[in-house]
């Protein structure tokens, strides 16, 4: 919702200033200019990117407007899940853990956390890493290298839709000039006609430049920045999973492995140790916050 509020503020400030100067809003309503600019911009994105990237752009924009899922209760729930998983491995042994890793949908631990099961990349990242640890076929540093490579690849893939949207935003001022030039061509064809008609065509041409700059710096540029921040938030989350897995690989106690993961959470979202401890004992995230 904060992104929607920001767009409203941008459009409201521009409209308010224009109204204070006694401007006529009907002059700004130039559908043809918008079709030229926005349609051409979408075309450049389609030409330059494969279908999966286009789909990611749509899902990324939806994520911006939906708001971030990475909140303190979200992290508390994941810390509790990690604690339950590691504690079960301590009590039941690695054979039982390996069964859960091979079939997480049937796991008694993972089944209590449907949101984590739905996050396929996070699920595979954690399960594949712990599976390598319990198999005993790799050194801890080698497993950490695997995690680092996995996260690097995921981060690069996540940047592709952001770069595509940012490139489109950068093209909008130039496409606005294209629309303005076409408006000038139409104006030249109307020379010799009524002055009012010529004035309307000149205004329409200038609106093209205005729309191109506004869409770039007022809407799509900030949206690409917001998508980038969402990707950064997801990177923090995977770092938390990485630290938890590393603690397990180093044979730390469940609470110490989870504490290592908690220290990797950004400060503004990081629960206190008391909140984490209460959550690991079975309290819900809201109850854990109250208990702390």
Layout of helices and strands:
Layout (H helix, E strand, L loop, with lengths): L1 H19 L10 H18 L2 H16 L5 H21 L1 H9 L11 H5 L1 H16 L4 H50 L5 H55 L4 H9 L10 H8 L4 H7 L1
Give your account of this protein's structure.
- This protein is an all-alpha fold and 292 residues long.
- 80% of the residues lie in helices and 0% in strands.
- It has helices at residues 2-20, 31-48, 51-66, 72-92, 94-102, 114-118, 120-135, 140-189, 195-249, 254-262, 273-280, 285-291.
- Helix 4 packs antiparallel against helix 10.
Number of strands: 0
Strand content: under 5%
The main pleated sheet reads as: none
| Sequence of secondary-structure elements | HHHHHHHHHHHH
Low-confidence stretches: none
Protein structure class: mainly alpha
Q: Label the overall shape.
A: elongated
From the alpha-carbon coordinates, what is the Rg to the nearest angstrom?
A: 26 Å
Percentage of residues assigned to helices: over 70%
- Count up the helices: 12
**Termini Cα gap:** 29 Å
> What is the averaged pLDDT score?
89
